[in-house]
Specification:
The chain has about 300 residues and is α/β, with parallel strands linked by helices. It contains eleven helices and eleven strands.
Length: about 300
Amino acid sequence: MTDPRPDLSVCIVNHDTPELTRACLRSIFATAGALRLEVFVVNNTPDADGAFGALMREFPSVCAIQNPAPLGFAANQNQMLRWAAGRYLMPLNSDTVVHAGALQTLVAFMDAHPQVGLAGPKLVYADGRLQPSCRDFPALLPAFMEVTGLWRRFKGNRWMAQHVALCDPHTDVTEPDWLSGACYIVRREVYARVGGYDAELFPVMYGEDVEWCWRIRRAGWRIAFVPQAVVTHLESQSAAPDRLYMMYEGSVKFMDKCCSPARSFGVRMVASAGVLLRWLRARDAHERATYRRALRLLLAGKG
């Protein structure tokens, strides 16, 4: 008997990015093929100029939600995930463009690997360069390599990739600890079991993806990186003037919740050394101030 549910529920947050959301939606519908899709878009800001309304008239099959007041990324995704009826769920950033075959590849991979709870595609920048999306849970070497930027000297090095997922060449199916939240596909049973994002701990953005992956892994599911599926991610397109600090804040919140005190302390000390090096190389006063705040945050260990 054919499953009557949509194959895939795609969930997108529009936050003052109507043109990016338009390009994202066009790519989804242009590449969907025979997949049965359900698409949600939350408008997170007032539609004073009517741009969102015009966008939705272009895509009448999309389920549009207008927020009465802005919410954070996690809360916005959760309200769409609650409504979603698909066999698989896909939180998707508005600043993405789906390549041909990507959705089909991810759905087919999940169908063929029932033990995988979450899978993500290869992300690339607008110019086609790889955007590393495989990550490690907090540990000393990955933390130092990432914060200092030294991982870039070992990009594509398979030996180093055994210790620092960012260094992986991203050419083969692998199982990292977690994946960047710009795009991934999640099994409905996973959502039913572990719930959605932690919107209380992460009220704005950053950190919700690693914490979700952590809960999914704790529940016994595997996480897979599937490079045969490709999605362009423009990255950092929504307004967030304090973006860098928010990334550090999200990391500390995750460690405070999910790591042992000893692991959290060790990683924060190593990351602090990396932030100190970045402060010494800062380009301007604003960057130095951001790194000072991040250093205080890491040393205090409070999110």
